[in-house]
Each structure stands twice: as C-alpha cells, then as structure tokens.
Amino acid sequence: MKETTLCYLEKDNKYLMLHRTKKKNDFNEGKWIGVGGKFEEGETADECAVREVLEETGIRMNSFRKRAVIDFISDTFPDEIMHLYTCDDFDKITEPISDEGHLEWIDKDKVLDLPLWEGDVIFLRYLLEDRNYFELRLNYHEFDLVDWELK
Q: pTM value?
C-alpha cells in the first residue's frame, strides 16, 4: 500500500491550494488539493510532508500539526494511506522545484466551493471545524465515493 502526505498551509484565514492543471496523465486533473506527495524510501510521514511542501511551494515548514490518517480504498487505483497535516508557521525560502499546477491562497470559507474530491470535502470540513486528530476511511468505486467511516 502506498503512503502519501497532504498539507494545508494556513495564513490570514486562507489555505494554500494547488489547482492541478499541468501534470500529464493526472487523475487529480482539474481538482484543487493541498500540497504533498509520495514517501521516498526510508522517509517518515513528517519528513515526507516537509520535503513535499518545500518542493511544491518553495516554503519551509517550521512547525506543523498532524491532523489525520486517511485510508483510501479503491477498486480502480492502488489503496493508499495519507497522512494529513496543517501548518501556519513557515517561511518562503526558494522557488518551487515541481510544477503540477497553480498555487493560490483561498479563503477558508470558499474552499468547499472549489472542484474537490468528495472525500476531500469530508476531511476539509473536519479541518475547518478545527477537530482534533482523527482517522478516516474513504471507499471509492472508480472516481466516486461510495462510503466512508470515521474510525
């Protein structure tokens, strides 16, 4: 099972969102997501989150908060464990290394109006409510969420 991270940077009551528009053969194409990606060999979840945010945004996270672990179960794509983070303590130190889309600061009260995965809406609501750590299972059939469970 692959492991990934996803981080939502926070500033001025906004999240930094990535509109996926540039990567070839991207199943996220057209969606708005946080920043993150796959673990490299030997990495911890925290190390992966820090590296991926730096690569995709040029931002170094000084401190961050692990908010959730989310299991994606799918009949179409490989199953995935995603470690979800938020961060409001960071510094812009370089230009992004990777370019998978357009980065934009979006007002938190408008985030749920964006084109999002159905499962992302569930965990984003929990983040917006500032819930403590949670675990979630999302079950997908092809691109559709068929059920979910808060563990």
A: 0.93
Domain of 65? 2-150
First to last CA, the chain: 19
Closest CA to 151 of 127, 139, 135: 135
Number of domains the chain is built from: 1
Q: How does DSSP classify residue 48?
A: H
CATH no. for residue 83?
3.90.79.10
Q: Please tell me the distance from the alpha carbon of residue 28 to that of residue 96, in angstroms, as a whole number.
A: 19
**Residues 36, 5 contacting (CB under 8 angstroms):** yes
Residues of the chain under the 70 pLDDT cut: 22-29, 98
